[in-house]
Amino acid sequence: MSGNRSRLLIIAMVWAAIASAWSPVVHGQVPESEVGALQADAQRARMPQANSVPFKQSGIDFLSLLVKGGIFMIPIGFVSLLVVTFVMDRWIGLRTGRLIPNEFRRAMGKMVRSGDSVDPRALYSLCNQFPSAASNIAAAAIARTGRPLPEITTVALDALQREVDRAYGNVRWLNLAAGIAPLLGLLGTVWGLIRAFHDTTQLTAGQNRADFLAVGIYEALVTTLAGLIVAIPAAIASHYFEGRITRVFGQVEEMTNELIGSLERFEGKTRFDIIGRELATRDLIGPG
Predict the structure, then answer these.
(1) Hey, which end of the chain has fewer CB within 10 Å, N or C?
(2) Which range of residues forms the domain containing residue 252?
(3) Is residue 19 part of a domain?
(4) C-alpha pair distances (Å), 190 with each of 99, 187, 194, 197, 228
């Protein structure tokens, strides 16, 4: 019996300890240490919730930003249209097939390398068959067949220079656009800054001058941005087309020099006159 009482006493003491441990929770009484911990946890829980919806800055609408550039955006927009127009024009006009067609170059090279069987009339007819910058230069040289080689060379170089100038014609507009667009943008920015500072001096004492000035400055810089957007592609396109002109007309010059060399045997012997779209021979009694 004493053993049973001892076990019952021990069990009663354990239950009493458990009940005392859970009694604050059951009756809503929380120790002060736990209250402080719970308050700290609640504070930390509230902080992410407050930051869960951060301030969202509005993005920059590019079209509305361009409108804010003011009146100077009009000439910059006009220059941009010129750039697009002349880029498309030179992209089409400076194709290799339009300056020196591959078929013309191959046929011309085959005729020129035929030696003594070179016929200026066939060469001239070939030039008429493939109208291009290269054929115009070759035709100018062929039409002078029988004259001294320096004269033929001078005529060919003059024709070459004319074709190069014609090819460079619209590329110069791209160079002009690349130079003038940033200047127009800078002019618009300077005017915008002047207007922003002037308007700031007209504010009353209660208005925020810093915010007002910041808006005026960023709007003034729009024209500089627009000018650079127009000028950079124009400069790249101009450089590309100039390289293409140099490369293609270098090939034309090599072909023309080879052609002039093949006409040397007619010097002082036979000359040719242009009749319509053909050449007619005219034999010479002596050098002329």
Answers:
(1) N
(2) 73-283
(3) no
(4) 45, 5, 6, 11, 15
Which tokens hold the place of 243?
């390289």
Looking at residue 230, its amino acid is V
The burial of 286, by beta-carbon neighbours within 10 Å (0-12 exposed, 13-18 middle, 19 or more buried), is given as exposed
**2 within domain boundaries:** no
Distance CA 68, CA 181 (A): 18
User: What is the enclosing helix (H) or strand (E) of 271?
Assistant: strand 270-275
pLDDT, tens digit (0-9, with 9 covering 90-100), for 196-206: 787 777 767 66
Quick check: is 63 in a domain? no
Is 18 inside a domain boundary? Answer: no
Q: Among 189, 195, 173, 202, which Cα is nearest to 87's?
A: 173
Number of domains in the chain: 1
Q: In a 3-state reduction of DSSP, which class is residue 273?
A: strand
